[in-house]
């Protein structure tokens, strides 16, 4: 629901194309979206294990921002923190750092 509200506020349709009617909708759009090829906008998001599905409004997530472990933590906090999460933490933090710096 978050991405639906943000997309409506910025005049972005489910294909990532701008169909708004105000320059204010494009103001600060880069906070939530990256411009992709073909003048479309794609959401800035990270996909962490347990969230593997299609992106907001049916968009496919960027494969460079889609992280998936070998298996799940089975709702076990210690396994997710010390084993499964420990394997992914460096690559996830690298993407977060690059996104924050851009």
Estimate what percentage of residues fall within beta strands: 5-15%
CATH-defined fold name: Rossmann fold
Distance between the termini: 26 Å
Summarize the main sheet. Answer: 2 strands, antiparallel
- The CATH homologous superfamily is called Tubulin/FtsZ, GTPase domain
For the secondary structure, the number of strands is 2
Note the run of SSEs as H and E: HHEEH
The number of distinct structural domains comes to 1
| Unreliably modeled segments | none
User: On the 0-100 scale, what is the average pLDDT?
Assistant: 72
Give the CATH architecture: 3-Layer(aba) Sandwich
Keywords: Cytoplasm, GTP-binding, Microtubule, Nucleotide-binding
Main location: cytoplasm
GO molecular function, one term: structural constituent of cytoskeleton
Organism: Chloroceryle aenea (American pygmy kingfisher)
Summarize it:
It is found in: Cytoplasm. Belongs to the tubulin family. The chain is mainly alpha-helical and 102 residues long.
SSE layout:
Blueprint: H1 2-10, H2 23-26, E1 33-36, E2 40-43, H3 77-101
Describe the fold and architecture.
The chain is mostly helical and 102 residues long. The protein has one domain: Tubulin/FtsZ, GTPase domain (Rossmann fold, 3-Layer(aba) Sandwich), CATH 3.40.50. The chain has a two-stranded antiparallel ribbon. β1 and β2 form a beta hairpin. The longest helix has 25 residues. The radius of gyration is 16 Å and the shape is elongated. The relative contact order is 0.13.
